[in-house]
Task: inverse folding
C-alpha cells in the first residue's frame, strides 16, 4: 500500500501532537490521577500514558502510588515498564529514566 498524502511539516506534526495530548492524554491522566497538579509530574504521567496507553496506567501500581501520594515510590514504578518482546530495551530504560527525573 502506498501512501498518497503529502508529508507534513514539523510545525504541523507538533500541532497534531499538542492537540492529541490535550484531547486524549491529558484528560485520561486527570481522570485516573485527579490529584496531580505539579506540571512536571503531570508531564511525566502524560508521557507514560502516551507511550503505554491509559489502560496500562489505569491498571498499574504506578497509578496506585500516585493516587496515594507516594511520590518517592513513583520512579521505581516507572522503571518497571522497560520491557518489549520479553527483554529490557535501552530506549525504554532511557524514556522511563527521563520520566522519573520529572517526579
Result:
Amino acid at each position: 500500500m502506498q501512501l498518497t498524502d503529502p508529508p507534513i511539516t514539523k510545525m504541523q506534526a507538533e500541532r497534531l501532537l499538542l492537540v492529541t495530548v490535550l484531547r486524549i492524554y491529558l484528560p485520561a491522566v486527570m481522570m485516573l490521577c485527579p490529584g496531580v497538579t505539579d506540571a512536571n509530574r503531570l508531564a511525566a504521567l502524560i508521557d507514560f500514558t502516551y507511550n503505554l496507553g491509559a489502560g496500562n496506567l489505569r491498571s498499574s501500581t504506578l497509578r496506585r502510588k500516585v493516587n496515594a501520594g507516594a511520590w518517592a515510590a513513583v520512579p521505581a514504578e516507572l522503571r518497571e515498564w522497560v520491557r518489549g518482546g520479553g527483554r529490557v530495551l535501552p530506549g525504554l530504560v532511557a524514556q522511563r529514566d527521563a520520566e522519573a527525573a520529572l517526579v
Strands lie at 83-84, 87-88. Residues 10-102 form a domain with the Lysozyme fold (CATH 1.10.530.40). The longest helix spans residues 10-32. The helical segments are 10-32, 39-52, 54-58, 61-68, 74-78, 90-102.
